Request: fold
Amino acid sequence: MWVSALIATLIVQTVSSFATIAIPLLGPPLMARAGLPLESIGLVSAMTSAGICWCLASGGPMLGHHGPVRTLQIGLACTALGLLMLSQPLGLLGLLGALAIGFGAAPNTPAGSQILVRAAPPRHRTLIFSIKQAGVPLGGALAGLVLAPLVLAQGLSAALGAVIAVTLLTILAVQPFRRRLDGERGAAQPGWARALLSPAALARSVSILRAHPSLPLLTVLGASFSVMQSCLMAFTATYVVTRHAASLAEAGQIVALMQGASMVGRVAMGWVADRMGGALRHLAMQAVVSALAVALLVAAGSQGSWALYGCAALAGFTAIGWNGVHMAELARVAPMHLVSDVTSAASLFGFAASICGPLAFTLTVNWRGSYGLAFLLVAAQLAAFGLASLVFLRRDASRPGG
Reply:
């Protein structure tokens, strides 16, 4: 059962990531075609994150009504539609397309968690969650390796068309898993469509984080990591093109290396967390290390391409390799019947941070003209939250009964 669950969720996670990360990777030609400054890709990334937040806040009834696998298929269909809209000259239609892409990517968190928490053996749960989350950088690495050469050979429209085709084929590929993995869904919820526009659904998604004492701190750390990750994903390609005179193909290789290192990092961190315990403390320490890695990435620009590639890999391993441990710990502390709700609510704050991060980054670049300063500010907030979390955990452990 757990093998089927992991295969299905990993396939969807990988393809969804491939489609989502294609947008910032293709940022320079997309923005150039629209006649906009290259840093404007941050607005597109913010709209994608807004779509994710919308689904996480209000999509719980949709998941309950359709079951996790069908919900993943609906998400892939929304992603394909969003890519089709974004393939048109950028404007209001393109921004709505980015919103649809985000909405389609969001079900991977609650639906995947619901599938895996039921199927994964407890002693390997963190590792299995981390393998599933490794689909995010795997998809990103594939996008970095494939899309830039495809754009150069066939043009931007052909590259976007290829991503749409892969997304639609994945809907068919996971259909055989549906009967087995959707068999335990609850009673039908016919009001799920209305819930997508319901303020009450948003309020419930926030209040659910009181279900366990560890959830607020886990949520804050996840949001801080999300700021860092979203900025790395949105701006690394544009940063190396504009500040280090890299070609689009070289930028794709750097992004692919970062994503590949992240994939290794997620699995490695999951393996370590299963054996060492203390996932929350592990995440806090990883936050500090990640901030240092991103600072090294900024400093590496003047040291030559070898240093840039090496530091990009280190940043990917640490600053993007956190999500599997985070998701597994959320699923572990949540009551079983609230796993999808808790992971949705915590991820909602993370993706809200993913909106604010790229927007603040764009404003910093416009204000100071420095990508390096913007990356350092983002790294500083992650280090601050990591250190504060370690202090809080030490004080909590020193209390009687802690």
Remarks:
- The mean pLDDT is 82.
- The CA atoms of residues 228 and 378 lie 6 Å apart.
- Residues 2-174+200-397 form a domain with the Growth Hormone; Chain: A; fold (CATH 1.20.1250.20).
- Residues 339-368 form the longest helix (30 residues).
